[in-house]
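Q: What residues go here?
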């Protein structure tokens, strides 16, 4: 079967599963709400960064993106892959279509989320955000979309490897919400290369990270690529 109809079928699965649609909606709603709250409460912070403040809702919003990526893959394993592979015998083609079907809506929702979060936060920031250039804001919005997409794909790759969305969420969510920050306070610069901390550099106007905005996003992309390669290996080698 050609790639195009496989991709259409995977996009159809996402459109027809309510849990996946709600996860994408949660990315937008949660990120925008938290950014709006940050916009009215963070200007007194001595480490205030107007761009990151405006996009800080991405930090809790990424949990929904991770859940979307994990659930989109784990639903295939509930009854085994036999039915899917009966329609698409070439496992690599199916997995590539699944990943593309996750990436496309996540990127679109991520870009809208970046725009909505920036607009909502700037209302509260007022003059404090006037120093942001158009280029910095565009970078932040684009970075928001790309970062959320990479985190969703990271979760998708791990789920394909572990064959369990619960296991993936049990690893990634505590890591992002707790472990990354605990290690960051102890280990110093090495934590700049963790997938979440590296990718979030692009959301800052200025940062003391050893990575630049696009370099940090590249580090996250490498983590994601490793997870996807491991997931592809698992899909190809293990029994359905």
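A:
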């Amino acid at each position: 079967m050609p790639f195009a109809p496989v991709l259409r079928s995977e996009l159809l699965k996402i459109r027809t599963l309510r849990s996946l649609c709600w996860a994408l909606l949660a990315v937008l709603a949660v990120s925008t709400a938290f950014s709006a709250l940050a916009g009215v409460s963070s200007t007194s912070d001595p480490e205030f960064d107007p761009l990151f403040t405006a996009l800080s809702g991405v930090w809790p919003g990424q949990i929904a993106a991770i859940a979307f990526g994990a659930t989109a893959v784990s639903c295939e394993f509930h009854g085994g892959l036999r039915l899917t592979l009966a329609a698409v015998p070439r496992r690599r083609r199916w997995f590539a279509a699944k990943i593309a079907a996750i990436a496309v809506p996540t990127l679109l929702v991520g870009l809208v989320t970046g725009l909505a979060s920036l607009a909502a936060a700037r209302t509260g920031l007022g003059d404090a955000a006037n120093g942001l250039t158009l280029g910095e804001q565009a970078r932040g919005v684009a970075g928001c979309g790309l970062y959320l997409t990479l985190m969703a794909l990271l979760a998708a790759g791990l789920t394909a490897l572990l064959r369990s969305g619960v296991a993936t969420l049990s690893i990634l969510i505590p890591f992002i919400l707790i472990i990354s920050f605990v290690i960051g306070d102890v280990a110093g610069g090495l934590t700049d290369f963790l997938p979440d901390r590296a990718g979030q550099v692009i959301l800052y106007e200025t940062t003391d990270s050893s990575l630049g905005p696009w370099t940090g996003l590249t580090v996250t992309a490498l983590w994601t690529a490793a997870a996807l390669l491991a997931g592809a290996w698992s899909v190809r080698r293990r029994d359905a």
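A: Context that may help when evaluating the design: The longest helix spans residues 91-125. The radius of gyration is 18 Å.
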